[in-house]
Amino acid sequence: MAKFTLILFFLISCATSNMHHNRIEKDKVIFKNGVSQSNTWEGSLVFKRVSWYSGLRLKNDVIYWKVDQFSEFAQWFSADEKEFFSSCFPMMVVLFYAGDHKGFSNAMMGAEIEKAGFKEITLNDFSRNISQHPDFNVWKLNRHKIKGYCRSSDKSLRGRYVYVDVPGFKQTFLDL
Predict the structure, then answer these.
(1) How many whole angstroms separate alpha carbon 116 and alpha carbon 120?
(2) Are 123 and 146 in contact (CB under 8 A)?
(3) I want to staple 106 with a disulfide (CB 3.0 to 4.6 A). Which of 21, 23, 96, 165 is the partner?
(4) How far lies 20's CA from each of 12, 53, 135, in Å?
């Protein structure tokens, strides 16, 4: 019995050892296949994901795609939104989530992206299309805010990374 209690205590302590640590995880979110008006296509839209956890709790989440104007998923942009293709270097679609509204907010995360020379742009049609995709619900993204970002052609701002500083976490980056 003592051996069982000792093993149980060990397993519980191992399982909870990360509960009080801040960590950052990187992953991908994939949307498979698409539809736009009468067009359907097979393929994948791959977003990169950076998630900030405090213990087991998701504090912030940034899911982003460096827009590829030649992707079939570009059909989800309206004609007005496609005009950004020629003036943005690059253009990004970003989905934000802030789990604690008293902590690091979506607006604060957007400000981190803007420090890298991006400006927020409106992507109503793309937002509407992606939020209706079945994988949007599979990934449970209903509480994420969808934003667009454009960086001008200023060559001094053309870095590959967007550095993000979230208080209480190591600095990380969005790899464009």
Answers:
(1) 12
(2) yes
(3) 96
(4) 14, 10, 31
pLDDT digits (tens, 9 = 90+) for 58-92: 999 999 999 999 999 999 999 999 999 999 989 99
The Cα 125–Cα 111 span in angstroms is 23
Q: Mind listing the pLDDT tens digit for each residue in 137-150?
A: 999 999 999 999 99
Q: Is 55 left (phi over 0), alpha (psi -120 to 50) or beta?
A: left
- Exposure string over 18-43, b if 16+ CB within 10 A, otherwise e: eeeeeebeeeebebeebeeeeeeeee
Identity of the residue numbered 136: F
Cα–Cα distance measured from residue 52 to residue 48, given in angstroms and rounded to the nearest whole number: 14
